[in-house]
Amino acid sequence: MNNLATRILSSSSLPTPSLVASLSSFLSHRLIITSHRQQTFVRHVSTGVPELTKDRYKDVKRGNYTKLDKDHIDFFKRLLGDHRVITDSEECSGFNVDWIKSVRGYSQCVLKPKSTIEVSKILSFCNANKLAVCPQGGNTGLVGGSVPVFDEVIITTSLMNTISSLDDISGIAVLEAGCILENVENYVNEKGFMMPLDLGAKGSCHIGGNVSTNAGGLRLLRYGNLHGSVLGLEVVKANGEILDLLSTLKKDNTGYHLKHLFIGSEGTLGFITKIAIQCPPKPKALNVAYLGVNSFEDILKTFKMAKSNLGEILSSFELIDEKSLDVVSTYYGMKSPIGIYPFYILIETQGSNLAHDEEKMNLFLEKVMNEGIVLNGTVTNEDSKMKSIWALRERITEGLLCDGYVFKYDLSYPVKEFYAIVEDLRERLKDPEVFRICGYGHVGDGNIHLNICLKEFSQEILKKIEPYVYEFTSARKGSVSAEHGVGFRKPKYIHYSKSEAAISLMKDLKKVLDPNNILNPYKVLPQ
Ligand code: FAD
Ligand code: MLT
Ligand code: ZN
């Protein structure tokens, strides 16, 4: 191990060799980490199914769509072959329930196209026959957008997973929509590049799903969002027309930038089939620090100092509160390597010169500790230990499912108000049914994930939380959906973040692109 690889710091003393050794063995033996995140999802996610969406959310009515019949199925089978048209109820069931088990549709048909032409033929047929469809990628979305509300035909990208090209000079990759993010990451890593986005769901989510939700993730602070990294798209319109916007150019100001309409449109404006994306070079030097602090004020101070001291190498600045860490401790036996604190900060740096980056990190850590802002911490550049620390943050999402039912909110605020909603709700929601209110998230992007856990779904508790959370957010000029999207769960709350004029223009665009409203109905826009 490099002598700077693992260091432990406390406000009263700087690193000593014995502490280095004890921390090192602690990390190797106590923290559980798996490199195949998808496997852990399967093992821990609750096996119960939620009640049907049509029964739980009675105010949403099925649109006047055609009901699927044998002739439709026969058409799909002629087009795709029997094996790529799933009609068996048991087989369809997994495609009907979302990842956090909050909504459930009852589609009796899942289609598995292998090419853009097939998607085009499916949509053209569905449009002509007024059959509603639900595009689906890895089904890891957190707002109920990826599964049908009623009986919409599901079109999954699971068999559209070719990495078409990677330019070894520019790092621009062209990918089919169904490529799993982690597979692409591994592929581009081998060629000296990295994907500009990373998230806890990377073992399951598809790049098409990421683009459709404009997923943010853990390094948006450094690499920006997908409106910047995605250079071009191939999209199939609702009527089956193929729209070739697959530019691989960095600069292309010819006319309106149509790709932006589809990034983050959650399958309501078009079906994304291919993506051209700019991959940055893989960093040569990585450092991860895990720090304990007493208050949110101290998080802000640390963030300010991290930005000015770490500058261009800062790639992530994440917050975990005590009750969030308790999730991974309780369910996965993963303990904080530095003891218990009200708040933890995970800082990552990515650069090209290890000595330079470590010097910067050390100076920064000395400053925040000497000033008494950070109380304790550990920093490492060893791969397995960095993964162990990242797991403390990334596995909270799946761990929360073990609590029972989770009301999940994805909010953004001016950074000073980042944590206020968690404190406010703890005061407001003193209900014995609610046993956890926790917050974690991307401080660097002003994006907090508020989670409220109870044994099972409760309409009464829901009424106490919504619309309150959205009113609170709107009053602070925040966003009711920072990165997960609107999906099924938030259309009626979109006005808390967007003006009437903006929503009206969105509705006009929807009418132009999908006049029969067959693409992912009941999602994003209020009915
Ligand atoms: P799905 O869930 O299948 O679909 C998402 C939406 O996109 C749906 O509306 C669907 O209809 C639409 N869609 C999918 N594919 C297409 C397509 N080809 N064309 C048109 N529409 C399509 N999100 C973040 O932003 N940041 C995070 O850090 C983050 N972390 C996560 C961690 C975990 C453990 C989990 C479970 C989720 C996390 N998410 C995060 C949520 C995030 O939105 C998804 O993980 C991901 O972006 C969705 O990709 P997917 O392939 O699973 O899409
Ligand atoms: C995250 O940052 O971990 C994700 O957005 C998922 C979540 O909200 O739990
Ligand atoms: Zn997030």
Could you explain how this protein is built, in words?
The chain has helices at 17-30, 37-44, 53-56, 70-80, 89-96, 116-129, 181-190, 207-213, 220-223, 226-229, 259-262, 296-310, 322-332, 354-370, 383-394, 396-400, 420-428, 459-465, 468-475, 500-513, and strands at residues 6-10, 85-86, 110-111, 133-136, 153-156, 163-166, 172-176, 230-236, 242-245, 271-278, 285-293, 314-321, 343-351, 376-380, 405-412, 434-442, 447-454. The chain is an alpha+beta fold. The protein folds into 4 domains: 4-30 and 283-396, Alpha-Beta Plaits (2-Layer Sandwich); 64-156, Uridine Diphospho-n-acetylenolpyruvylglucosamine Reductase, domain 2 (2-Layer Sandwich), CATH 3.30.43.10; 163-278, Uridine Diphospho-n-acetylenolpyruvylglucosamine Reductase, domain 3 (2-Layer Sandwich), CATH 3.30.465; 404-513, Alpha-Beta Plaits, CATH 3.30.70.2740. Strands 1-14-11-13-12-16-17-15 form an 8-stranded antiparallel beta sheet, sandwiched between helices. It binds flavin-adenine dinucleotide (FAD), D-malate and zinc ion. The site of D-malate has 5 residues, from loops.
